[in-house]
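Narrative summary of target 7.
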Amino acid sequence: MQLSHYCIAYPKLVKSRINNKAYYGLQFMTRTLPCFSVLSLWFYKDNVKIMPHNLYDIITYESLAHIIMSDGARNNRGLNLHLQNFSCKELIFFMNILKIKFDLDCTLHKSRNLYTVYIRSESTKKLYPHIKDLITPSMRYKLLDHFVNLS
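Modeled conformation, tokenized:
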């Protein structure tokens, strides 16, 4: 495992149930290291997750692939990023970065009184070649195969 030196134990399989459907995940615990403390300072303020001010400088196609794998979901012909824990202002900041840095067209969608970021179909198609090798095969279903060749 590539991350084993950061971990205090082997990963374990976890199971959760939502609406009587079983979902599985992999859980691991990392060591307390200075490199993680720096990241924590960027992404948390008073134990609340925030959008870091230096996001433009640190976001890459790889980090965007991780966001899609963890918080992404198909929506019609595009992709929803379920980032409801961020404020509307932070999500607009995030969408501006996606537009400027990656030329992605996004809109804000309201879901249960909270907001999600929707990446439009054409932008999802444009994004895919940059992230296809970074997406774990089991997560590629999040990118619509009816307009993207996932092979």
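The mean pLDDT is 87.
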